[in-house]
Amino acid sequence: MRQAILFLFLLGSNVHGQEWQQLPPFPGTARDDAAAFTIGHVIHVGTGRDVVFALTNDWYAFDMDLQQWSAIAALPATGRQYCSTFTQGGYGYLFGGVDDTGPLNELWRYDPVSNTWAALAPLPAPGRYATVAFDNGLVCTGMLDGGVPTNECWKYAVDTDTWEPMAPVPGPARHRASGSGGIPLVVGGADQDGNALSDAHGYDAIANTWATAPALPEGRYGADATTDPGTSTTYVVAGASSATDFHNEAWSRANEAGWSPLPSFSGGPRRGGVIGFGTPSGTNDRIIYYGTGSDDVQRYSDWWSYTNLWNSIPEGSTARLSLFPNPSVGPVHLPFDHPAGRLNFTVTDATGRIVMTGTATRTMDLGPLPDGQYVIDLSDGVHSHLARVTLLRP
Predict the structure, then answer these.
(1) Where would I find the H helices in the chain?
(2) pLDDT digits 0-9 by tens, 252-275
(3) Which option is the CATH number for 20-308: 1.10.443.10, 1.10.645.10, 2.120.10.80, 1.10.10.10?
(4) Which of 172, 202, 296, 354 falls 20 to 30 Å from 241 in CA-CA distance?
(5) pLDDT per position as a tens digit, 84-99
């Protein structure tokens, strides 16, 4: 089998690469199964179970522009974990979860202008936790009292403060699935017996129907998902495949495509973290923010970012391209999704002769090339990324 060993060098201007960067830590106690929602350039994080196994109701806000945290109003209710969130009209919504009395059906709305919480109409059904929620008000799956998972879906209407049952998610009843943002895509989760699921299902709000989407490469529960509204790309980070097997892999899925790998999360394997996505003011950076969570040893309060470099570099300049895995066997992957979907690439050999051209999305197969050193240039006509690649057979 051919083996592609990649040696990558900086070939252009002084810009940062596509890597996870550690940021100021979450200021609350370390915790897992917290909740988060993003309003504008601010990510709000709160609730969860902390390092002394206490349920929390405190909340904090991370300002993407200033890269700093501040305390905001605590939820005026019991401490809880496994809540789900969505945003609409400049408000953040917090649904369900579980406290010391059991699963909850409560819905709360946070107003960032007045820094206050308001109780809204509860779900007219049994309480549940570890659901997934989307910005159209859809709340799906989760765990009911007695450890019984569900595939029910409900939709909350912000204008009438009412709930309506919708078509259930196909496949096994599940909890701790992934999904968030403006694209209703339920990914993975765990079934009744705690088995990790990999299937994915997308929702058509007009028809109130679900369609099977490409499955994750591996089963995951307790992973976290976020969506880039500009490119309709969904990202899934970390998660567990069993009670003792934690992971730090990350994947992305653009539009109707399958899943492509991203560089693994640098903070290490975990489940039950929180995630957000945003573009800081005055930049074109498209950034995933991720942190907190737990593994088999500890709970975390760290906070990280992953930047899609493509739109971050000055027009006409050249930046480093970090293909991965490194070394690689078979196809090599790009660590970003370009808004246009496809990029032109040119491969030249050590003599400067063009040996391959084409278009790429997230994967390029250099298999037809013989052993040797090559330079890959990917371009959208404005920005360019380069990498020097050495192909070696074992």
Answers:
(1) none
(2) 887 677 888 888 999 999 999 999
(3) 2.120.10.80
(4) 202
(5) 999 999 999 999 999 9
